[in-house]
Amino acid sequence: MQEDESDLSGATPRRRPKPDVLEVGGRRLKPATLMMGHGFDPALSEGSLKPPIFLTSTFVFENAAAGKRHFEGVTGKRPGGAEGLVYSRFNGPNQEILEDRLSIWEDAEEALTFSSGMSAIATLLLTFVQPGDVIVHSGPLYAATETLIARILGRFGVAWLDFPAGAERHEIESVLERAKAMGRVPLIYLESPANPTNALVDVEAVAAARDALFGDHKPPIAIDNTFLGPLWSKPLDHGADLSIYSLTKYAGGHSDLVAGGVVGAKALIDPIRMMRNTIGTITDPNTAWMLLRSLETLELRMSRAGENAARVCDFLRQHPKVESVGYLGFLADGRQADIYRRHCTGAGSTFSLYLKGGEREAFAFLDALKIAHLAVSLGGTETLASAPAAMTHLSVPDERKQALGITDNLVRISIGVEDPDDLAADFDQALAGV
Length: 434
Ligand SMILES: *Cc1c(COP(=O)(O)O)cnc(C)c1O
Hints:
Structural class: alpha/beta
Largest sheet: 7 strands, mixed
Shape: globular
Helix content: 25-40%
Number of domains: 2
Bound molecules: pyridoxal-5'-phosphate
Order of helices and strands: EEHHHEHEHEHEHEEEHHHEHEHEEHEH
Number of helices: 14
Strand order of the largest sheet: 3-9-8-7-6-4-5
């Protein structure tokens, strides 16, 4: 099939009617309920309760006139987008159902899904930046995101300035002012909680600073919401325009797939979709199907992991071999606690454990764990532990590691959905051996 023209598509080819039962008896249904059926009509698939996996590269038009009509929509010749499915680099039924369900959690107009968290971020950045632009971002960011912005986009004449995650409004404003003086600011990019420090960004303060400094052409605020979203943090409610996910983590939740997502207003999602149509960073049908299954248990899994983390952190905090525990649930006062109370409804289940000692103690602890696995990543059903200074952040320069609190005695832990007392027993025996 020729699909040259459709590279310019900004529209979702959409065959299914935008669904279904969203309220019952005047009561608006909650995301946990909608994850079971929203966006899928069994009558379109032989009555199958679950959506089949649509393994096809292309879709048959009803007749030539319909094909023309779809392409008018795909190419933007006619407003409103294509009425049908066209070609699997643009979209497919599994991806569309997934996108409808993903947008529910943040009450967003639209969502897009991608082949990885990084391909979501790369597609977003390619959509908005031009040579001479200055990206303003919070720091630290996920290491690959920092590389993409500083080293890769840097090769194409894009500069960046950053402010520390916990910055106050006036600090954010002064960084934005400096950036404005250097060039056009195409977007403000945030990550909260930041990886691996768990530092929170004040999204409301960023939005206020942006609104005070930019008139009609406000750069969109995009935020990586992987760590607490979509259950505990809904940044679109606090002034962000786009919320980004590594769906590999909590949304996928079983450490068995890699995917990404972006949710937000249609006006911003449309140009990102156009870029995705062109470069082909869409998630595949099989992964989309797996994510549909994952989303059915998202609230169950994140709630249980959150309760487990609270239990385990309580235990770890009072252990004599532990120096401190960097867990959002322990924020009591100060600026971070204030941001936490305004922006988050739960502490999540990924935290930092600082042992007394250094690398030797951290390694002894990691090697002694019997339930928790020694692996990077987070958000799965199983508990994982790693040493950022020696692993994910090995290449970060020493001074920057020190400034970010990425010390040799730091162990990062992502708590799963196991029995909490079993987990506490595992940490207890591993600490005993240190
Ligand atoms: C894992 C992760 C990413 C990258 O996602 P992939 O799915 O691995 O491409 C981006 N941001 C954060 C915060 C992450 O934890």
